[in-house]
Amino acid sequence: MKRFVFPGVIAACMSIGGANAQLADTLKGEAVDPDGTLHISDLSVPLSSLLSPEARSYMLHVLRDKPFSGGPTPTQDIKGYRARQDEIMNWFLKPIRERYPVNVEHKNIAGIYTYVVTPTDGVAPKNRNRVLLNVHGGGFVSGARTAALIESIPVASVEKIKVITIDYRMGPEYKFPAASEDVAAVYKEALKEYSPQHIGLYGCSAGGMLAAMSIAWFQKKHLPNPAAIGVLCASIGDLGGGDASFITGPLNGFSIPAGRAGSDGPAQFRPAYLSNVDPKNPLAYPINSPALVAQFPPTLLVTSTRGMEYSSAINSHNALMRAGVEAELHVWDGLPHAFWYNSDLPESREVYAVIARFFDRHFGK
Amino acid sequence: MKRFVFPGVIAACMSIGGANAQLADTLKGEAVDPDGTLHISDLSVPLSSLLSPEARSYMLHVLRDKPFSGGPTPTQDIKGYRARQDEIMNWFLKPIRERYPVNVEHKNIAGIYTYVVTPTDGVAPKNRNRVLLNVHGGGFVSGARTAALIESIPVASVEKIKVITIDYRMGPEYKFPAASEDVAAVYKEALKEYSPQHIGLYGCSAGGMLAAMSIAWFQKKHLPNPAAIGVLCASIGDLGGGDASFITGPLNGFSIPAGRAGSDGPAQFRPAYLSNVDPKNPLAYPINSPALVAQFPPTLLVTSTRGMEYSSAINSHNALMRAGVEAELHVWDGLPHAFWYNSDLPESREVYAVIARFFDRHFGK
Predict the structure, then answer these.
(1) Strand A102-109 to strand A112-119: parallel, antiparallel, or no bridges (unpaired)?
(2) From CA B149, how far away is CA B163, in angstroms rounded?
């Protein structure tokens, strides 16, 4: 009997003991194309055994109730699309405002709308001359002022630090490099008040991409690096690629039609904001330039194994490491993209703590 | 039309632009049980787009040719099983011996068989008073002297350091805690010659588990921690668990029969060596004791997204981080368990460099 096994450790796993020998007997090979494409049928995947009870409850809700569906697409009706996204964001934001008491003040910086978020009981003494800049997620099309606060409030509160969240120009109205220009404009103003070693920059999803793009833009504009950046639920290149492109859609409850497998994958991230950009342009996709990657400041990467970006995120971590950049990777199992927007989850509170500890460690003296 | 999408960032990914709107139109939901179990049919997964050409070639070979199949199970014929595993290991070892010139000397330490591996052009000056201890993979049943050299030779050569690889007692002849005792015996001898801050301990797969178990055993025996440990392609608890238990089997080309989904997963690692051990026993599965986890030295974790341990590995990283331990995680996409045994892959050479840099950073002055 031919058993399809791998080096000894796997064989040992699959064959030791009577029960496992029975299992091994029932295994059959899957169809494998000449190019290595696997055709997997009838795969049953329960919720990850490693989830907290709160995360389990959330995943059940997401998979079974599909709470984020509905509404027009951006191309059908951009106002309606944003209204629906803000509705979803506000569902996350409500408990965050209850849990994390902060002051939120509008401030116009270099002509750009920002919120300045500070904990109500004050910034920690060690953080008095430090600031974090946040750039929000939302696919470069939504999330302004809503996702922005989801990402800023817990971090401001947990780290007891001032966070300035930047309402950058987005698609479809604006195109690259508008957002990078806006981040640079706010950064230049911040540099009048804080040394670069006392400034951090972070964002989630499109915001994570934008944090990486901003480093490229700062280099181009001869601005010094901030102390560190957080590229959360994102990568320093495209969000898609790797195994995640084919696996995470199904793991979030939707099917990828058979036959769409191709090297680019079905879930390419091609927002209107980036529609005029060459995918090899390092100003938008820094991973394309090893020389640029080598210039990155210390970088935090956070991802999860049911997020479509997880392959590109771990690949970004390796690219930064190869380039000699100090890069820190944290991954959570069985959770979807941007899971940490949900403050009910202990896992999300771990992410807030990871972000806080990372910047605290990398701020200069 | 009801689209099954997630917060805005996903919606943006799936709906921006005409082509993606068409894709969104064709998406359909998958069957989801009340407990959150997904039933995925007809999933096509190509090789990861992020693989090097060498890794792509290797994965094609593994998936299509099934080069590691054949031979008896350990329970059928332990000698035959080990002979077959050694044959597989020697396939990896041959190019390693050609690429990495080392001296390999047998040395009996405290009654235990070891190899002492040193680079032929000598240990680096900074490493003269340092040593790495290796404990090999092989499911606690095989890999002695073969996997042991696969794991030791490249590291000794790349880091220019002495590596002592320990031929610890394994199943089915021996049971826990025999291997932990053997590691402790060699460690005690090493402590006569090296300060603990100049000793590192690492292993792959069963060896990674054993490195973690050894910390638990050292605590029990009031031995000081080594400078750092490497838990490679393993975790500080069980190897199984999480999404990996259900996904990685199919991603390596074998089907998990439908209906076997359960919280433990189909690929539980229950070698004869651990058959007498309570899965909650922290001496064998340290993750069960947060107090013990907090005592861990700096820990390196390496895994890959088609390895069955990847969920438990990333979970271990988070457990160590929560306990305040300095822990470093590196993940490679689309590669199987213990991929770095294959020295043809640039990814494997990245792993050797990661190991070298990690220990170099954590050795004491």
Answers:
(1) antiparallel
(2) 10
Which residues, in sequence order, are CB contacts of B318 under 8 Å at separation 6+?
A330, A332, A350
Three-state secondary-structure class, residue B41: coil
Task: Write out pLDDT tens, residues B136-148.
Answer: 999 999 999 999 9
* pLDDT tens per residue, range B309-320: 999 999 999 999
Residue A43 to residue B39, Cβ atoms within 8 A: yes
Which of helix, strand or coil describes residue B45? Answer: strand
Is A264 in contact with B27 (Cβ distance < 8 A)?
Answer: no
- Token digits of residue B278: 């309570």
Q: Check A331 against B350: CB less than 8 A apart.
A: no
Give the pLDDT score at B255: 75
Is the CB of residue A135 less than 8 Å from the CB of residue A179?
yes
Contacts of A70 in chain B (CB under 8 A): 2-3
Residue A188 burial (10 A CB sphere; 0-12, 13-18, 19+): middle
Look at chain B and count its residues.
365
pLDDT at A145 over 60: yes
A53 in contact with chain B, both atoms CB, cutoff 8 A:
no
**Residue in chain B nearest A84 by alpha carbon:** B8
Backbone angles phi, psi at A209, to 5 degrees: -60, -45
* Residues across chain A: 365
Residue A77: other Cβ atoms inside 10 A: 13
The per-residue pLDDT for B262 is 44
Chain A CB within 8 Å of residue B29 CB: yes
* Complete DSSP assignment for A78-95: HHHHHHHHHHHHHHHHHH
Identity of the amino acid at A58:
Y
Output the pTM of the full model: 0.93
List average pLDDT for each run of 10 residues in chain B, which is 365 residues long.
36 35 45 94 93 98 89 93 96 98 98 98 98 98 97 98 98 97 98 98 98 98 98 96 95 69 55 94 98 98 97 98 97 97 98 98 94
Chain B, nearest residue to A333 by Cα: B311
User: Which ipTM score applies to this complex?
Assistant: 0.92
Q: CA of A153 to nearest chain B CA: how many angstroms apart?
A: 18
Closest residue on chain B to A35 (Cα): B60
Angle A115-A120-A124 from CA coordinates, rounded to 5°: 95
Give me the residue from B30, B34, B241 closest to A255, CB to CB. B30
Interface of A with B in 261-320 (CB under 8 A): 261-272, 275, 305-306, 308, 310-312, 314-315, 317-318
